[in-house]
Write a structure and sequence with these properties.
about 190 residues, alpha+beta, tt1808, chain A, 6-stranded mixed sheet, 14 strands, about 30% strand
Length: about 190
């Protein structure tokens, strides 16, 4: 199959046949084309987050991964949702397979780009919440803020942080992210 068509429903098995060189996500069976390559600014922000988390996790059982990395949120059911978050943390080794993560990661981070704002703030947020992702970060380079969504009783509550603050990673006791470092990572 060259590429998915609009208004059709897809599964992970379909996704694995797409060989058009483009990046795709499927959410509840609907295919979404992803931006070709992230900008250097986007890569700098997600890279800084990844590095800070990876440094904290040295010698610990949880692992951090960065895009492209497939996360199949409902692989045991319809298997119709596969996303590629910018950064993910997985603490349950049984969720890892050669192609990515099966089930909800412990932490998902999305760095907004102009084309992904609605997708990350609405569509993915709802999907991560319903899949039971315990913590979801939305990093906004434009406003230099981070919205941390923490799952409690099946619903996210939000804590917002500014670029001059340190944000705790709630699922990783003792891990704090220096947001100034994240937002100045793209500076030359």
């Amino acid at each position: 199959m060259a590429r998915p068509k609009e208004m059709e429903r897809y599964t992970y098995a379909d996704y694995c046949t797409w060989d058009d060189g483009e990046r795709w996500e499927i959410i509840d069976g609907v295919a979404y084309a992803m931006s070709p390559a992230p900008t250097p600014e986007h890569q700098s922000h997600s890279g800084s987050l990844y590095n800070q988390i990876a440094n904290f996790l040295k010698g610990k059982p949880c692992k951090v991964f960065y895009a492209p990395f497939d996360v199949r949120l409902n692989a045991d059911a319809e298997d119709d949702t596969v996303v590629q978050p910018d950064v993910v943390v997985i603490c349950d080794k049984s969720k890892l397979e050669k192609t990515g993560c099966i089930g909800a990661p412990d932490l998902v981070v999305e760095v907004l780009s102009p084309s992904s704002v609605r997708h990350d703030r609405i569509i993915k947020l709802e999907r991560y919440q319903s899949a039971g992702v315990p913590e979801y970060w939305i990093v906004d380079p434009e406003t230099k803020t981070v919205s941390v969504h923490i799952l409690e009783n099946g619903k996210y509550y939000i804590k917002n942080y500014k670029d001059n603050e340190t944000a705790p990673v709630h699922i990783l006791k003792g891990c704090e992210i220096d947001l100034q470092e994240v937002f100045t990572a793209a500076d030359w």
